[in-house]
Amino acid sequence: MKKFSRYFGGEYMPYWYGAFVVIVIIMFFNFINASSVEKYKLKIFDPSGKLIEEKIITKMELERYGDPLPLSKAFEPIKKF
């Protein structure tokens, strides 16, 4: 029990606080980065998996492309960070 209290309540506690602050900062930047997406890179593939077309679309156009296409497609968000 002495070893447990040493790592989770004793001399190493400042490191746990530091790690917590770092994780919260990373989560905050990830949230800002995900919410700032305005454009997407649309990739359309043929049935054999080769890239046919690649273009940049906005959020409004993304809703229109949400319907199924006869070809495979991929949406890649363009983020700030």
Tell me what the structure shows:
- The chain has 81 residues and is an alpha+beta fold.
- It contains three helices and three strands, in the order ααββαβ.
- It has helices at 2-7, 13-35, 59-64; strands at residues 39-45, 51-58, 72-78.
- Strand 1 (39-45) and strand 2 form a beta hairpin.
- It is elongated.
- The chain starts with a helix and ends with a strand.
- The model has no long low-confidence stretch (mean pLDDT 84).
Total helical segments: 3
Determine the strand fraction and express it as a percent band.
25-35%
Q: Averaged pLDDT, please?
A: 84
- Unreliable spans are none
The separation of the N and C termini measures: 44 Å
Largest sheet: 3 strands, antiparallel
- Rg, Cα atoms, Å: 22 Å
State the order of secondary-structure elements, H for helix, E for strand. Answer: HHEEHE
Number of strands: 3
Helix content: 40-55%
Keywords summarizing the entry:
single chain, 81 residues, alpha+beta, 3-stranded antiparallel beta sheet, elongated
In short:
The protein is α+β, with helices and mostly antiparallel strands and 81 residues long.
List the topology elements.
Layout: H1 2-7, H2 13-35, E1 39-45, E2 51-58, H3 59-64, E3 72-78
Antiparallel strand pairs: 1-2, 1-3
